[in-house]
Amino acid sequence: MTGRLRFHLRLLALYFAQYAKARLMYKADFLTSLFASFAGTAASFSVVLLLFSRFPHLQGWSFPEIVFLYGFSLLPLGVFNVLSLNLYDFADRYLTEGRFDRVLLRPVAPLFQILFESFRLEALQEILTGLFAMAWALRRLPDPDLAGLLLLPLWALFGGAIYVGVFAILTATSFWIEDRIGLAPPVFNLMAFGRYPITIYDVKVRVLISTVIPFAFATFYPTAMVLRRREFLPYFWAVPFVALLVGAAAVSLWRAGIRRYGSTGS
To answer: How many Å from the N-terminal Cα to the C-terminal Cα in the chain?
Structure first.
């Protein structure tokens, strides 16, 4: 098990290094994409600032708490966006065009290859922007929990894993549903709900993003300890288990889809 983990981590590092090397050969294109990505993040963040800066509290949540929550939400989102490039294009690029046959010939798990063959490097700015917002908010929070802060980097990775797992599940449905667009775009819009306090939503929305599509475990619940929201601490400790459950479901569905896959015949 340890040997396999080392092998895959080394392979991931090689994949990333090679892709980054090729991507950065066209510096102007990369910088343009980086600026566009940052502009999109800044625009969405500015809407939050405009909406909430005029109100000292929102249903018991202070403005610094909301900024901290929004800033943290950018960390798992950034991890997901760096890795999700091929998930969006999977049905079109790999199934319709027949590239998945090439993936199956390699002695590495197909899902691993799909996730790490390409990266969206410009999405790394989301992580930096999120860290800046969190640092700003922490200076204004009255008593953030130190233990929660120490666990946040790990919980951010769990959050990214939840995002990747959910969309890997949706992508796997392409083995059964012949649809180039897939189910991902409408579900992607639900990610925004996890960037705000879950208590501001109707109970149906809370149930949806806490159970059916557990985006709240990727962004909202991980901040419960830092913000000393003790009513949500059981959900905070459940985050790693949700990430493992979603990941296991994704891997199982991919294996079932691969068994069903019959190649393009070309």
So the answer is: 37
Contact (Cβ atoms closer than 8 angstroms) between residue 74 and residue 41: yes
Cα–Cα distance measured from residue 203 to residue 207, given in angstroms and rounded to the nearest whole number: 6
Asked if 120 and 85 touch (Cβ cutoff 8 Å), the reply is yes
CA 81/CA 101 separation, integer angstroms? 25
Model confidence pLDDT, tens digit, residues 150-200: 999 999 999 999 999 999 998 888 888 766 556 677 788 788 888 888 888
The CA angle 91-165-77, to the nearest 5 degrees, is: 95
Burial of 176 (0-12, 13-18, 19+ CB in 10 A): exposed
Summarize pLDDT for 197-247 with one digit per residue, the tens.
888 888 998 999 999 899 999 999 999 999 999 999 999 999 999 999 999
**In the chain, % of residues over pLDDT 70:** 93
95: nearest Cα among 15, 168, 164, 173: 173
